[in-house]
Design brief:
With 218 residues, the chain is mainly beta. Among the domains are: 26-74, no CATH class; 81-113, Ribbon (Complement Module, domain 1), CATH 2.10.70; 117-145, no CATH class; 169-209, Single Sheet (TSP-1 type 1 repeat), CATH 2.20.100. The protein has helices spanning 2-6, 147-157, and strands at residues 26-28, 35-37, 57-60, 71-74, 80-83, 86-89, 93-97, 100-105, 108-113, 129-132, 141-144, 182-189, 198-205. The protein has a three-stranded antiparallel beta sheet with strand order 7-8-9, with no helix packed on it. A two-stranded antiparallel ribbon has the order 1-2. A two-stranded antiparallel ribbon has the order 3-4. β12 and β13 form a beta hairpin. The radius of gyration is 34 Å and the shape is elongated. GO terms for molecular function: heparin binding; integrin binding.
Length: 218
């Protein structure tokens, strides 16, 4: 009876099929007449506008009694998650890219990086480490540059506000060597003419020293 009310014969379909969003394939409507975009998880559906069965979705009318209308859901009411237009089952592990791996859990998803996020500091045998993308490899890798290559690369991108032709790297200034009066603080920095790590010093004074008591005359 419903089919007789909604389906018309012969079929009258547009010449150009609709352009579907990513993750929504072209399927026949509920009358088996015209091609439409399949509805995805959580989208409204009815007899004509069918859900994407390739993702295990059916039109769920359980919420229609509450006045919200039917929506596409998993046939066994299993929770799932949608990423980039694709639906994954609860517990399913997937990789949106070669750099991360995710798992669908309770309608959401948790991801972990597959590339190491280590930090390489300058060392005597590798004073200028740099992380670069390697053709054919997913994860970037650390390489050691020679001093000439390092200075030439940074000289092209140096800002007019920088006094030295390299990106600043160094430690924080240490505490003042004296608790009162003039002392000095130290740090390790590469902000010098040759961009080499060196120990630098500067004067500091926490507070003036108290005045010595006046000497009694002999």
């Amino acid at each position: 009876q419903v089919c007789a009310q909604l389906c018309r014969r012969p079929c009258y379909c547009p010449w150009v099929p609709p352009r579907c969003p990513r993750g929504s394939p072209l399927v026949l409507d509920g009358c088996g007449c015209c091609k439409i975009c399949a509805r995805r998880l959580g989208e409204p559906c009815d007899f004509l506008h069918v859900c994407d069965q390739s993702q295990g979705l059916v039109c769920d009318y359980s919420s229609a009694s509450a006045g919200t209308g039917a929506t596409c859901n998993f046939e066994d009411d299993e929770e799932g998650c949608e990423v980039n237009g694709r639906v994954y089952r609860d517990g399913e592990i997937f990789q949106p890219s070669c750099k991360i791996q995710c798992q669908c859990l309770d309608g959401g998803f948790n991801c972990i990086p597959l590339c190491q996020e280590d930090v390489r500091l300058p060392t005597p045998d590798c004073p200028y480490p740099r992380r670069v993308e390697i053709p054919g490899k997913c994860c970037p890798e650390w390489i050691c540059e020679a001093q000439d290559q390092h200075l030439l690369r940074d000289a092209g991108a140096v800002s007019p506000l920088l006094r030295f032709p390299c990106q600043e790297w160094g430690t924080e200034w240490s505490a003042c060597s004296a608790t009162c009066g003039v002392g000095f603080a130290t740090r390790v920095s590469n902000q010098n003419r040759y961009c080499r790590l060196e120990t630098q010093r500067r004067l500091c004074m926490v507070r003036p020293c108290p005045a010595l008591p006046a000497a009694f005359p002999a």
